[in-house]
Design goal:
Length: 343
């Protein structure tokens, strides 16, 4: 009897935390890449309502941690390339075909990432959230990243786990994501280890597209941002160059601290500084008026709230060295967790 040859080249890993992942799953089933070349691995911390069949694999792990789910998916993967996407995102039809073709054309690349595009029909609050996250006034986000050929020492934050392709052997050699970190900064830490410490080359291209609806401007968004930035502050004790090498981060963190100190010494500094900040915020926001007339009115105070939340949260993370030194020690002693059982 002739044995069936395994043709799987790409394993899509989706960490599932939501009840409904149908939009994501439907987009993965409609890919232009031949269906016999890829498998879909859904990993959840609770029983899935989706039925496993064919090359749709459903795994249940004890931990809700997305890193643990991605690592579990990688351990089960049959493909030589891992394609990562979030459960609330959906892929353009040529996502897999384009990502796999890029890695074939660039054998020197360990992986490649792409943008998370705001989908058509998004609400005003979702659009405002997208602007805030990717504005140059924040210095982050994919709208600030141009095409990047494969290179090591990649800019921090350019590739994230919502839209990337990684060769499985590279992922395994790095022991996967660090599950100790939890939610927030785990992908930045992984790509730092991969490109800065292990000198693997990565690329970034706007040809590999997923659509992702951001959290709407509101309390939920600020809570999420606060939680993520606390993690960034903690990671400063582990990999300080991840963030301090970025001018926007260093200037923001230490510049605001200096501003507060000077304001305490000379009260006039505070109104002058706040006035300058909002003048700059209005100047930046004015350009977005061509998309929606409301943006120049609402963006400046939202920019301010975001910067304030980031600043407070990062310092809270930094001060963890004093409030919970064992947590920082645990982070320092941890690395990837691929070979460890999911917790």
């Amino acid at each position: 009897m002739e044995l069936k040859t395994d043709t799987i080249e790409v394993s899509i890993i989706v960490p599932v935390g939501r009840e409904d992942v149908s939009r994501c799953l439907d987009s993965l089933r409609r890919q232009t890449l031949s269906r016999d070349l890829y498998e879909i691995i859904l990993v959840s911390h609770r029983p899935l309502t989706v039925r496993a069949e064919g090359d749709l694999v459903c795994l249940v792990v004890p931990a809700a941690n997305p890193s643990a789910k991605r690592n579990a998916g990688a351990r089960a993967a049959r493909g030589g390339v891992l394609a990562l996407i979030d459960d609330d995102a959906w892929a353009r039809e040529d996502w897999l075909e384009t990502g796999l073709a890029y890695l074939r054309e660039h054998p020197e690349a360990a992986g490649v990432g792409g943008p998370r595009i705001l989908p058509p029909g998004s609400s005003f609050r979702e659009k405002a959230s997208d602007v805030i996250a990717h504005s140059k006034f924040f210095g982050n986000g994919h709208y600030n990243w141009p095409e990047m050929e494969p290179r090591d020492k990649i800019p921090h934050g350019i590739i994230n786990s919502c839209n990337c392709f990684i060769r499985k052997d590279v992922f395994s050699s790095l022991n996967g994501f660090n599950e100790v970190i939890g939610i927030g900064g785990e992908d930045t830490e992984f790509f730092f280890r991969a490109s800065h410490q292990s000198s693997h080359c990565f690329a970034y291209t706007w040809k590999i597209v997923v659509y992702h609806t951001p959290r709407r401007i509101g309390w939920g968004l600020f809570k999420q941002r606060y939680r993520y930035r606390v993690q960034n502050g903690k990671l400063l004790w582990v990999h300080p160059s991840i963030y301090l090498s970025r001018a926007t981060f260093s200037v923001g963190l230490f510049g605001i601290s200096l501003f507060i100190l000077l304001s305490l010494l000379e009260p006039l500094v505070f109104p002058l500084g706040i006035g300058f900040y909002f003048a700059l915020a209005f100047a930046v926001s004015a350009g977005y008026g061509r998309y929606d007339w409301r943006f120049p009115l609402v963006l400046p105070p939202i920019f301010f709230l975001h910067h304030a939340v980031y600043y407070i949260a990062i310092w809270r993370g930094i001060l963890t060295i004093f409030t919970n030194p064992n947590e920082i020690r645990r982070l320092r002693n941890s690395s990837g967790s691929l070979q460890s059982p999911s917790r």
